Amino acid sequence: MSTTRQDLLQAFDALLQPARFKDYGPNGLQVEGKPEVRRIISGVTASLALIEAAVAAQADAVFVHHGLFWRGQDGRVTGWMKQRLALLLAHDINLYAYHLPLDAHPELGNNAQLGLQLGLTASGRFGEQDLGFMGTRTSGDGFTDAAALAAHVQQVLGRAVIHAGPAQRAIHNIAWCTGGAQGYFEAAIAAGADAFITGEISEPQAHYAREMGVAFIACGHHASERYGAPAVAGRVAAQLGLAHEFIDIDNPA
Q1: Which pTM value belongs to this model?
Q2: Sign for the pseudo-dihedral over CA of 140, 141, 145, 147
Q3: What's the pLDDT tens digit per position in 58-116?
Q4: Which residues of the chain have pLDDT under 50?
Q5: Residue 76 pLDDT
Q6: Could you tell me the residue range of the domain that residue 56 belongs to?
Q7: What is the CA radius of gyration of the chain?
Q8: What is the pLDDT of residue 166?
C-alpha cells in the first residue's frame, strides 16, 4: 500500500500536534521528496549515515527526532549540510522531523518510551512546556539507593552512565526528560524528585546534585532518545498500511 506525502504529514501532525509547542526548529516536512510514499525509515538523527541507509533500503521517507534545520544556524548549504541535502534530493526522499512534539507525546514520545524501557510509570509533568515526566517504578517498589537506579539504567540502555550526587539515598520519586534536558534539573528538584534521569550533564548539575541531595543520572543523549521515533513512525505506518523499519545509527554522545 501507499499514501501521499501530504497525507503522511497530516497523520504525523495529527498524532504529535506540533502547533502546541514553541520549538527550536521547524517540525513536519523539512525536505520534500516524491509525492507517493510506500516505505518509511525512522531514526534518531538525520545524519548522512542514516540517509545512506534509507537510500539502501529504498525508502520514500525518513522520520527523525533531530532534523536538519535549527534556529540560529548558518543558512549556507555547504559541507555536511550540502552532503545530506544532496543525497536526499538525489533520491527524492522526504524528510520528516519532529523535535519537542516527539519528546512530549504521552504514549509514544521519547519520554514515555524511555519510561517504558526503564519500568517507570508517569504520574505527572514538570518543567517548561510540561516536557519533563515525574513518576515511580511500575512495580511499585522504589530503588534501594541511587546507585541501584544508576545500575538499572545502565543495564537497560546498554551503555555507561554518569551518576552525580548521593549514592545511598533511597529512590522513590523519579523525574526524567530525554536528550539535552540538564537544564530541567532544578525544576525536577522543585517537583519533589529523589533522582533525575536525562541524556546529558553540564558542569553546574554535579554541584546541584551534591548540594540538594538529589541524584542526577546522565545516560547519553542518543541512548535516551532511541525509542520515540520508531514508536511514532511504526504507529503511523501501521495506520496507513506502509512498510517501516527503524535504523539505529550508533552515537556515543
Answers
A1: 0.97
A2: negative
A3: 999 999 999 999 999 999 999 999 999 999 999 999 999 999 999 999 999 999 999 99
A4: none
A5: 96
A6: 3-99+227-246
A7: 19
A8: 93
Domain annotation covers residue 104: no
* 3-class DSSP state of 120: strand
What is the separation, in whole angstroms, between the first and last Cα of the chain?
37
Q: Per the structure, how many domains does the chain have?
A: 2
Mean pLDDT estimate for the chain: 97
- Alpha-carbon distance 13 to 30, whole Å? 13
H-run or E-run covering 74: none
Report how far apart, in Å, the C-alpha atoms of 218 and of each of 115, 147, 179, 205 are. Answer: 14, 13, 9, 10
Q: Are residues 123 and 218 in the same domain?
A: yes
Q: How many whole angstroms separate alpha carbon 69 and alpha carbon 89?
A: 16
State residue 28 phi and psi, 5-degree precision. 115, -145
- Please report the pLDDT score of residue 211 as a whole number: 97
Answer yes or no: is 53 within a domain: yes
- Residue 42 domain flag: yes
Is 234 in the same domain as 214? no
Domain match, 157 and 178 both: yes
Asked if 117 and 141 sit in the same domain, the reply is yes
User: For residue 21, what are the contacts with CB-CB under 8 A and spacing of at least 6?
Assistant: 27, 100, 101, 104, 129
Q: Does 105 fall in a domain?
A: no
User: Residue 213 corresponds to which cell in the numbers above?
Assistant: 541531595
